[in-house]
Amino acid sequence: MTSFHVQRIEEEIKKEVSKIVAQELDDPRIGFVTISRVSLNRDLRLAHIFITVFNQTNKTTTLIILNRAKKHVRWLLAQRMRFRRVPDISFQMEDDGS
User: Fold this and answer.
1) Of 3, 9, 15, 18, whose CA is between 20 and 30 Å from 80?
2) By C-alpha distance, which of 42, 52, 43, 92 is closest to 70?
3) What is the pLDDT of residues 27-56, one digit of tens each?
4) d(Cα 32, Cα 12) in Å, to the nearest integer?
5) Secondary structure of the chain in the HEC alphabet?
6) Distance, CA of 66 to CA of 72 (rounded, Å)
7) Using CA atoms, how far apart are residues 56 and 32, in angstroms rounded to an integer?
C-alpha cells in the first residue's frame, strides 16, 4: 500500500470527523474543536485523531467526552465512508510545542 493511499484515507477521515464533531455531537460541554491531523497505523486498523481546543479551560473535558463518544463517531464515520473496514479511533490532544 502506497503512502499516497494512506494519506488519502487520513484526509478523508479528518474531513468526515470534523463534520461529525461540528454538526452531529450535541454536547454543550464540547468546546470549539479543530481536527488538526489524523495518523493511521501500518495495518490501517487504528486512527489517532489529533485535536486542538480553542478554550483552554474545556480542553480536558472535551477530550474525555470525545473519547467516550468514539464508538458513535466511528459508527457515523462508517455510514459515510466507502472503505471495507473503518478503523478504530482514538482522540488525542495535539502537542502545542510548549
Assistant:
1) 3
2) 92
3) 888 878 999 999 999 889 999 999 999 877
4) 21
5) CCHHHHHHHHHHHHHHHHHHHHHCCCCCCCCCEEEEEEEECCCCCEEEEEEEECCHHHHHHHHHHHHHCHHHHHHHHHHHCCCCCCCEEEEEECCCCC
6) 10
7) 10
- Cell 486498523 belongs to 45
CA geometry: angle at 84 spanning 35 and 87, to 5°? 35
Sign of CA dihedral 76, 78, 79, 82: positive
* pLDDT the model gives residue 13: 95
CATH number of 3-93: 3.30.300.20
User: Rounded to 5 degrees, what are φ and ψ at 30?
Assistant: -75, 125
- The rounded distance, in Å, linking the Cα atoms of 18 and 22 is 6
53 vs 11: CA distance, rounded Å: 19
Give domain limits for the chain: 3-93
